[in-house]
Amino acid sequence: MAALSPHLVRLRRLTTAVDVGAGNGALIPLLWGKGFSKVIGIEPSPAAIAAAPDTVRPHILETVFSASVLAGVSPSLVCSFMTLEHLPDPKTFIDTTYDVLEEKGIVAVVVHNWQGFINRLLKLRSPIIDIEHLQLFCPLAIETLLKEAGFVNISINSVKNTYPLRYWLKLMPLPGTAKKTLGEWLKKTGMERRFFSMNVGNILVVAQKAKQGR
């Protein structure tokens, strides 16, 4: 949210915000805190929704994103973090987002950047090489996708990820014995729960709807 907040000044008003791939709804309270009058989460996984807090769960729709889901609603913000890689047709998602947004509304997506330093260094051992990732993006690819849909004022910025050290260890391409030994040391010292921020090649892309229609 810290990376997205400066872009919210582009909006004419804070009406409805939509979080596509909402998971357990962690982003929803943060969007409320920014002043949006309504926040809608869209998440196809019932297990993820079940993990949401009681105050958040009613605001998450168990479905996939489509124009019909938002019938009668013209959001000022649609965001989708770490979701586009899992879609078989990201172009349809971006085109639909443009259509449902109100004029001057913005879309914000976070995707893995396969051209990022760590991903280029690790190559096929990078965590982004995953059977669940149907797409891989780079800045030029996501910018082209947004431009073809009609979006303007496109900004692309690197973002840091913050996770406990035990999670970072899972992603490290180490031999099993070395990973186990290091994991035991982190647990013994209590360091496994310490949070650490690192730029691992993810990018935040924000773009604005120029006008109604295309």
Give the helices and strands, then pairings.
Elements: E1 16-20, H1 28-33, E2 38-42, H2 46-50, E3 60-61, E4 77-81, H3 90-100, E5 106-112, H4 117-122, H5 139-149, E6 151-164, H6 165-171, H7 176-189, E7 195-209
Parallel strand pairs: 1-2, 1-4, 2-3, 4-5
Antiparallel strand pairs: 5-7, 6-7
How many β-strands, per DSSP?
Answer: 7
* CATH class placement: Alpha Beta
How many domain units? 1
Q: Whole-number average pLDDT?
A: 85
The description of the largest β-sheet is: 7 strands, mixed
In short:
The chain is an alpha/beta fold and 214 residues long. It is built from 7 helices and 7 strands.
What does this structure look like?
It is a single chain. With 214 residues, the chain is of the alpha/beta class. Helix content is 28%, strand content 25%. It has seven helices and seven strands, in the order βαβαββαβααβααβ. A seven-stranded mixed β-sheet has the order 3-2-1-4-5-7-6.
